[in-house]
């Protein structure tokens, strides 16, 4: 299996896919999967920019919206995690994972899926100690503090990943596992990034949570981004003499090392994305402990036996199969000649994919604090086909409105 790995995407899918296709043509190979390691920026329209924590000069539509609308289609299956520059409102709809666009799958805030027989896990966001033990308390519309904390890694999601027992082939995190720099060419790294020196000496460069997951899961490969440089390392696991191959890549810019194609051992294709049985069992067990306030998760609320959860999931997957639920648009698509109307809701929208997964697992919906779905978003029938989103939008020519201020 040939897997392309991308560092920070920053919404520049057109150039990433163009680079990938050029690589395929030059080397006469077929790339089976693209993995993006965060800062994906799945921005569907101008309204999503309000939940994107970036300086004003970087608050741009870029090109994801073309793939969301169906104007373009990803040339190969794409899996991504979230970083610290995301349309957090949209990714929150898909907290458990799901199709962000046709052929483009978000792994979730934490998640494990299968691509063919390759098992891929991931953790979105970046690690900040002061928010780590808090619950997922942020609610839309985000204030100035929440827009900066919504993407901080939480103990609850890491705890779920720590329950994984079956082998992981590939793991993805946005920031690097802590102390990973000492496992590679640290002198070469410091020549390119001399300001990392103090953090490397202190052992604080990177994510403590990711380091704990690396020690527990011991995947064959670990991919990261965030620090905008290419860096590789080998991690020797003393307990079982296995090795993790670590690779971090740069952001998508000319002359930067942002994309690499790897050969990953696997069964013969064709390949497709499938739910992972063990992960769905873990999700079923721990969802009752979902922390929706600032209070730390109470894991004693996860009372279900994991073996019973596994059997439950196995029976469900035998009945419906393991493919994720189909992609459904939940927001209007960006149109360069028109603005999204204020009728577009500023609060949480329940994504039908998420609702369907929770119904399958017979779990309660905890992603908002209401007892019923938002009337504007609850029905699949609002989105039967491409071009059916007039319900949301008003035709407002760009020339008739004030220019956006850089900081808004």
| Total number of strands | 13
Overall form: globular
What's the rounded overall pLDDT mean?
Answer: 90
Domains (count): 1
* SSE order, one letter for each helix or strand: EHEHEHEEEEHHHEHHHEEEEEHHH
List keywords for this structure.
6-stranded mixed sheet, Purple Acid Phosphatase, chain A, domain 2, 13 strands, globular, 7-stranded mixed sheet, disordered C terminus, alpha/beta, about 400 residues
Provide a descriptive summary of the structure in words:
It is a single chain. By secondary structure, this protein is of the alpha/beta class. The chain is built from twelve helices and 13 strands. The strands form two sheets. The chain has a seven-stranded mixed sheet with strand order 10-11-9-8-7-6-13. The protein has a six-stranded mixed sheet with strand order 4-5-3-2-1-12. The longest helix has 15 residues, at 13-27. The radius of gyration is 21 Å and the shape is globular. The termini are far apart. The model is unreliable at 370-408 (pLDDT under 50).
Report a brief summary of the structure.
The protein has 408 residues and is an alpha/beta fold. The protein has twelve helices and 13 strands.
